[in-house]
């Protein structure tokens, strides 16, 4: 057995600043072990003697020794003492030793081709460091969200929540929230459902992912509106589906074109209340025609009702699901656009025969949605705050599109023809002097504007150049400033 190390010749740097003494001692001893100054098998001094040598309390030394032993740097023999372990966990990290490696050829492991192709089209949105910039398309009026009210509801829910809410949640979602959603979509959108048909998701993207994974087989054909929502296209494509672009006109998706191009498709994705990005409403005849096709083809329809509550003339049109008597429509909604982006909660209204399978699928993906967030949202809805907020935002957004349209008519005349949107949180500006909306968008971004070209959402059927302009999240002053900057940007090139 090697003799006890007296530490007379071991250099330990004195602690500096407000560093914990036990952590200082632990770090110094760990470093001495790793760089070989304390050899394997060396007996450590007693905690009393080491404490006396460095003016440390015995308790401080004991804590440092316990940490070293817990991490495998030392071992204790009863009745004998503490020794440096022979197998040090970080031995290969020693700064004085060359790391031990095995000569291997460079790994050629890589993404499969399908993944690389998919990732090319994915836009990763940055974390929000500002809000309300012109003309951000994906942001509601966060500046007007009743944060204090939400905080009071959240505080009350968290104070009163039973301990069971901190445990494992239901895969389909928190039952009171499912009831609240069923009542809301029934009253406001005409959706026929019970709470048991609701599956709570982490937003629209997760709903689309679940549908693609579990209802589509590799090679199945899917009708996709063109132009249409690229997030849906990318998500469904990852399931191995073959996307079939279907043109859109003033009455929405052209069902006859879908029949001609892929009559045996397994699924159709549509935004009938407010087509993304054209902003048209699917006519009643088209809705019935689409339902007849799906029934005869044994196909599914995804109805993405992302912002249908925001209609600025008349009442919101009823959901397509309200006309479905065959059980082929999967209704998808989200609270992100209606409340705030950070609230990653959405839902699906499923035909009854799919509910059990999708609850299992939800478990497979991420077990269950966050229960406490669901409980807060359920209270926010049932107490009437959600409905009040929607009514207020509908009025505010109607005012903001008028501000945008008026400012555009004044400053963008001859450059851009901005559409007075009848619904939603964004609109289109048709370019008059630019042949490429991609180039126009790039030019606008140089002036700090957040615009998106319409061509970004087209797959096969090209449209005249246009820019997508969000107005919901911008104050009137920011909208006017944005229009002025856009005019300067488009004229300066």
**Which structural class do you get from the secondary structure elements?**
alpha/beta
How much helix is in the residues?
Answer: 25-40%
| Computed Rg | 31 Å
The average pLDDT score comes to 88
Element string (H = helix, E = strand)? HHHEEHHHEHEHEEHEHEEEHHHEEHEEH
Taking the sheet with the most strands, its summary is: 8 strands, mixed
Name the CATH superfamily assignment of the largest domain.
Type I PLP-dependent aspartate aminotransferase-like (Major domain)
Number of helical segments? 15
With strands numbered from the N-terminus, the spatial order across the biggest sheet is 3-10-9-8-7-4-5-6
Task: Specify the overall morphology.
Answer: elongated
Q: Report the CATH C-level class of the largest domain.
A: Alpha Beta
Give the second-level CATH assignment, the architecture of the largest domain. Answer: 3-Layer(aba) Sandwich
Distance between the termini: 83 Å
Under CATH, the topology of the largest domain can be stated as Aspartate Aminotransferase, domain 2
* Poorly predicted runs: 1-5, 95-100
- Strand content of the residues, in percent? 5-15%
Based on DSSP secondary structure assignment, what is the total number of beta strands? Answer: 14
- Please indicate the count of domains: 3
């Amino acid at each position: 057995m090697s003799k006890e190390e007296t530490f007379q010749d071991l250099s330990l740097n004195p602690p500096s600043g407000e560093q914990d003494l036990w952590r200082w001692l632990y770090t110094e001893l760990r470093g001495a072990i790793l760089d070989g100054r304390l050899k394997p098998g060396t007996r450590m001094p007693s905690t009393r003697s080491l404490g006396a040598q460095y003016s440390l309390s015995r308790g401080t030394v004991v804590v440092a020794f316990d940490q070293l032993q817990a991490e495998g740097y030392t071992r204790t023999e009863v009745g004998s003492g503490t020794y440096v372990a022979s197998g040090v966990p970080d031995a290969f990290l020693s700064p004085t030793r060359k790391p031990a490696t095995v000569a291997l050829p460079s790994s050629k492991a890589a993404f499969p081709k399908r993944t690389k192709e998919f990732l090319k089209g994915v836009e990763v949105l940055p974390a929000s460091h500002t809000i309300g910039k012109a003309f951000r398309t994906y942001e509601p009026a966060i500046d007007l969200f009743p944060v204090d009210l939400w905080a009071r509801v959240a505080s009350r829910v968290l104070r009163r929540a039973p301990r069971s809410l901190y445990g494992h949640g239901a895969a389909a979602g928190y039952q009171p929230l499912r009831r609240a959603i069923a009542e809301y979509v029934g009253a406001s959108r005409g959706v026929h459902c019970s709470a048991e048909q609701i599956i709570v998701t982490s937003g629209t993207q997760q709903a689309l992912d679940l549908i693609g994974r579990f209802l589509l087989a590799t090679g199945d054909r899917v009708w996709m509106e063109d132009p249409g929502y690229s997030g849906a296209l990318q998500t469904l494509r990852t399931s191995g589906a073959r996307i079939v672009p279907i043109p859109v006109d003033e009455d929405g998706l052209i069902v006859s074109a879908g029949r001609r191009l892929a009559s045996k498709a397994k699924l159709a994705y549509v935004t009938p209340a407010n087509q993304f990005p054209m902003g048209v409403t699917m006519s009643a005849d088209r809705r019935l025609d689409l339902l007849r096709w799906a029934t005869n083809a044994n196909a599914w329809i995804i109805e993405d009702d992302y912002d249908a509550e925001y209609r600025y003339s008349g009442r919101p049109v009823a959901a397509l699901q309200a006309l479905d008597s065959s059980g082929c429509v999967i209704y998808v909604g989200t609270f992100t656009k209606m409340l705030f982006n950070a609230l990653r909660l959405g839902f699906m209204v499923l035909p009854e025969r799919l509910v059990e399978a999708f609850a299992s699928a939800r478990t497979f993906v991420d077990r269950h949605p966050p229960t406490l967030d669901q409980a807060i949202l359920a209270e926010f809805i049932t107490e009437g705050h959600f409905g009040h907020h929607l009514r207020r935002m509908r009025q505010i957004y109607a005012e903001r599109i008028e501000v945008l349209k008026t400012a555009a008519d004044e400053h963008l005349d001859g450059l851009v023809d901005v559409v007075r949107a009848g619904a939603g949180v964004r609109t289109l500006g048709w370019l008059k002097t630019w042949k490429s909306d991609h180039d126009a968008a790039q030019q606008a971004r140089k002036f700090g504007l957040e615009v998106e070209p319409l061509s970004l959402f087209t797959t096969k059927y090209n449209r005249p150049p246009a820019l997508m302009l969000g107005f919901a999240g911008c104050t009137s002053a920011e909208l006017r400033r944005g229009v002025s900057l856009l005019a300067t940007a488009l004229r300066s090139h």
